[in-house]
Amino acid sequence: MLDDMQRLCDNYGPAKTIPFHREFVEIEQYRVFEKELTFSFCLSLLAVACVVTFITMNLHLSLMILLSIVLVDYFLISLIYYWGLTINMFTGLCMILSLGIAVDYSTHIAHCFLLTQPPESCVTNREKRYYKAVKAISKMGSSIFHGAMSTILSLAALAYAESFYFLIFFRTWTGIAIFGFANGFILLPV
Predict the structure, then answer these.
(1) Contact 37, 73 (CB under 8 A)
(2) Residue 25: its pLDDT value, please?
(3) How far apart are the first and last CA of the chain?
(4) Neighbours of 69 (CB within 10 A)
């Protein structure tokens, strides 16, 4: 509609005529929404990748952490669909922010995995990895669990809000906490 209005003004109106209505500003955002969301997502993911790689100094582990972080957004998109929400500016913002929030759940476990030294009784690489994964979960698991649960409990107050934006915030951030916890606590160690 906006393109048609601009074409009509260009073809039949005075020079440099710009069609305007209050609703055009709101509609205009959807012209660039997909491009801006993709660009912001990629830029945020690049920043997270640089920080995670700098912290771990291990490319293989950094890629596994990034996979678990990207999966949080993938699961979040599915959750948005099943809850009957749409991808709009607010859910897009929550998706971009989830990249930074989901880092905590995976990076702490991975960093602890890297720092744990297996005993000499672990002979094979499989035994060493298993020992390190168990120790990482036992050292960091309760902190990550409490972080996820405190996030969910603090969001519980928004569960019955009447504001649509509060409901979106509750649903997306609850999903981020649950999926981030599951990916960092279950998927990454496996």
Answers:
(1) no
(2) 77
(3) 51
(4) 28
pLDDT tens digits, residue range 61-72?
Answer: 999 999 999 999
The residue type of 21 is H
Q: Which run of H or E residues covers position 149?
A: helix 125-155
Instruction: Spell out the alpha helix ranges (H) of 57-88.
Output: 59-82
Quote the pLDDT of residue 22. Answer: 82
Residue type, 158: L
The string of pLDDT tens digits covering residues 179-189 is: 999 999 899 98
96 closest CA partner among 62, 48, 63: 48
Is the distance from CB of 79 to CB of 159 less than 8 angstroms?
no
- For residue 136, what are the contacts with CB-CB under 8 A and spacing of at least 6? 109, 110, 112, 113, 116, 189
